[in-house]
Amino acid sequence: MATENLEMNGDAGRNGNAEVPLRGPWRQQQGPLNMNHYANKKSAAESMLDVALLLANASQMKAVLEQGSDFTFYVPLITLISISLILQIIVGVLLIFIVKWNLNDESMHYKLNIMENFATAFVFIIVVVNVFITAFGVQRPKLSA
Questions:
Q1: What whole-number distance in Å separates Cα of residue 58 and Cα of residue 64?
Q2: E strand segments, 23-127
Q3: 75 and 106, same structural domain?
Q4: Within a domain: 52
Q5: Do residues 3 and 47 share a domain?
Q6: What H or E segment, with its residue span, contains residue 7?
Q7: d(CA 72, CA 69)
Q8: Domain-located, residue 26
Q9: What is the residue-level pLDDT of the chain in tens, covering all 145 positions?
Q10: What is the total count of domains within the chain?
């Protein structure tokens, strides 16, 4: 039973058995996990999120520039948005290299691991910077007439 795929929910426990084999053709194992395929999907998803945030930051930069230098948080927002944009570009380049290299080549694992760690650290910094961008706000409060 140790080599079978087991179902964690469903009929488990009805007959005193804690483990029940998986059923159905759609739950059968399709072979070993292709790490390159998995990494490419993961990097593609990260890239799509990066593009969405890049567009949001570009829109925020436009709004801050339109408000002009008399806006209270003009310099901090321009600085934070610029940092975010630069880091997003760096993460995008890192993700391109990560996707291009073969995960099955064990000699590349060390380099790929370092690049993944840098990408993760930069994404964390981007999130923190964008929290501050949101806290400072981009829209000027409307003055009542």
A1: 10
A2: none
A3: yes
A4: yes
A5: no
A6: strand 6-7
A7: 8
A8: yes
A9: 444 444 444 444 455 555 555 555 555 556 666 666 666 677 677 767 778 888 889 888 998 888 888 888 889 999 999 999 999 999 988 888 888 877 777 888 888 889 889 999 999 999 999 999 988 887 655 555 5
A10: 2
